[in-house]
Amino acid sequence: MGETAVPGLVLAAGFSGHGFGIGPGAGEMIADMVTGAVPALDPAAYHPDRFAKGSWGKVSDF
């Protein structure tokens, strides 16, 4: 979750089959991020930039 390379575009995706259960919490976190409120949990671990490194910590070429 987080702002992407497109300013103002916030992405919340990848919930698979669990989206129904965790959707309300994710929606609250995204609402907090968009409005500038402090989220109950730190969303840094879910930022899209986490995919810039491969599974072994190496920078990917894509």
Brief descriptors of the model:
62 residues, mainly alpha, two-stranded antiparallel ribbon, 2 strands, single chain
Describe the structure in your own words.
This protein has 62 residues and is mainly alpha-helical. It has one domain. It has one helix at 19-35; strands spanning 2-3, 10-11. It is globular. The two termini are 19 Å apart.
Characterize the overall form: globular
Would you report the number of β strands?
2
Overall number of structural domains = 1
> What is the succession of H and E elements?
EEH
Give the percentage of residues in beta strands. 5-15%
Helix/sheet category: mainly alpha
How would a crystallographer describe the biggest sheet?
2 strands, antiparallel
Taking strands numbered 1, 2, ... along the chain, how are they ordered across the largest sheet?
Answer: 1-2
- What value does the average pLDDT take? 77
Give a nutshell description of this structure.
The protein is mainly alpha-helical. It has one domain (2-52).
